[in-house]
Amino acid sequence: MDAGKNNQSTRGSWGSRIGFILAAAGSAIGLGSIWKFPYMVAKNGGGIFLVLFLIISATLGVALMTAEMTIGSLAQRGAVGAYERLGGKRWKIIGYLSVFCAFILLSFYSVVGGWTIAYFFKFMQGSLATSNAKELTHIFETFVANPVEPLFYHALFMAATACVIIAGIQKGIERGCKYLMTMLFLLVLVLIGRVMTLPGAINGIVLFLQPDFSKVTSAMLIDVTGLAFFSMSIGMAIMIAYGSYAGKDIPIHRTALNVVCLTVGISFLCGLMILPAITVFGIDPQAGPGLTFISMPAIFEQMAGGTFFGLLFFFLLFIAALSSSVSLLEPVTGFFVDEYNTSRTKTTIIVSILMFIVGIGASLSFGIWKDYTLFGKNLFDLLDFSSSNLMMPVSAIAASLLVGWKIWPVFAKRLAGNGNPLWLRLMKPFFRYIAPAVIAIILFQGLQ
Ligand code: PHE
Predict the structure, then answer these.
(1) Cβ(270) – ligand 1 distance below 6 Å
(2) Which of 32, 156, 351, 446 is surrounded by the most beta carbons within 10 Å?
(3) Pocket lining: 231 vs ligand 1, CB cutoff 6 Å
């Protein structure tokens, strides 16, 4: 970011549009695309989940990301301040909700982030050198059920996130993403190439691409909507914070479209990499959160230079997760710094410790706390469900209503100047009625 370059306000602006896209993509692309998307697709019967994911991303995803970025750009504030400035005092509550949601989300996100570090080291030690699905499943399950080891890595991941924030958000967010995400993209292409040439891969591709409409249930609809929001970092006011740095010369709707395409593209490629591995190695499609960690070592075992690729993959996965977790910690820290004038470093440390503590419960729910459930969900699932499937959709409804009813004229002007193109005319009823109604119906049905 170049402070104050293209912007009259003191907030500063992204040095270039590409910097803005990359930073937003750095937040969006993460465990959602590489860890969550593949196992959700596999669990929900493949093709139809993919089709719905694409539809929701292309409609709600693009529109809401545009809405959030524009809200930020117009208000020149982070979440809480932006809602207050544009909507009035009562809207502040949506800002609070987003901050709370970011807190909950990062506390379990960090547990999985820790797994990526652990798998990097396991690769180094050579303890994953097998393509036997049963053995890899056993390794994963024993690791996550251990009451101590994953907590150590969870702490490490949380500490890494906090260090990036303490060292300065701009550098942290922008620096790594540009090259490393390109590398990740190329690596995924190479891995797809490898897995596709293994016998039986075609069945996985069919599973991934062939829709079976009979699999659509209300529970699945809420899952797919929650996943789309989670993957694109929507409904948590994170894009509001990024938008607040976007100078007037940046075309927000095109930026949002780019970020959605990048995220969906990576998710799709990860599906093409992992679903065939399920059929090739005979992995249980219901493996859930372990799927990426079980299937990837099997692929590396079948490759020349597998250890190198394995190390590179888990390193890049860690970086992808880190750039997302930084974007989650920043608004929580920023909230306390702005509202209560606390010290940035101290706040970051305290918030991170609190997140770590909540995450302990999430981690233990794969082991000794497995049987402690509420509404049929263990703590990890509860944190995930309540943030992705409840709070994010509620906050997305709010963003939509704010744009459609409260700030439409300025919103339209910010996006299209004095013009009134067709897409903009379609967006007004979309924000006013369609998006809030669709999300509300999905939420309501999914909770029944
Ligand atoms: N989108 C990130 C991912 O896919 C997670 C995230 C969600 C980050 C919400 C910020 C806000 O990993």
Answers:
(1) no
(2) 32
(3) yes
Per-residue model confidence as pLDDT tens for the chain (448 residues): 333 333 334 455 666 677 788 888 889 999 999 999 999 999 998 899 999 999 999 999 999 999 999 999 898 888 888 899 999 999 999 999 999 999 999 999 999 999 999 999 999 998 898 889 999 999 999 999 999 999 999 999 999 999 988 887 555 556 667 788 889 999 999 999 999 999 999 999 999 999 888 888 888 998 999 999 999 999 887 898 888 877 777 889 899 999 999 999 999 999 999 999 999 999 999 989 999 999 999 999 998 888 999 999 999 999 999 999 998 998 899 889 888 999 999 999 999 999 999 999 999 999 999 888 888 889 999 999 999 989 999 999 999 999 999 999 999 999 888 888 888 889 999 999 999 999 999 888 877 6
The correct CATH number of 3-447 out of 1.20.1250.20, 1.10.4160.10, 1.10.3720.10, 1.20.140.160 is 1.10.4160.10
Q: Where are the domains of the chain?
A: 3-447
Per-residue 3-state assignment (H helix, E strand, C coil) for the chain: CECCCCCCCCCCECCCHHHHHHHHHHHHCCHHHHHHHHHHHHHCCCHHHHHHHHHHHHHHHHHHHHHHHHHHHHHCCCHHHHHHHHHCHHHHHHHHHHHHHHHHHHHHHHHHHHHHHHHHHHHHHCCCCCCCHHHHHHHHHHHHHCCCHHHHHHHHHHHHHHHHHHHCHHHHHHHHHHHHHHHHHHHHHHHHHHHHCCCCHHHHHHHHHCCCHHHCCHHHHHHHHHHHHHHHCCCCCHHHHHHCCCCCCCCHHHHHHHHHHHHHHHHHHHHHHHHHHHHHHCCCHHHHHHHHHHHHHHHHHCCCCHHHHHHHHHHHHHHHHHHHHHHHHHHHHHHHHHHHCCCHHHHHHHHHHHHHHHHHHHHHCCCCCCCCCECCECHHHHHHHHHHHHHHHHHHHHHHHHHHHHCHHHHHHHHHCCCCCHHHHHHHHHHHHHHHHHHHHHHHHHHC
Distance 228 CA to ligand 1 centre (A): 10
Q: Distance from the CA of 321 to the center of ligand 1, in angstroms?
A: 8
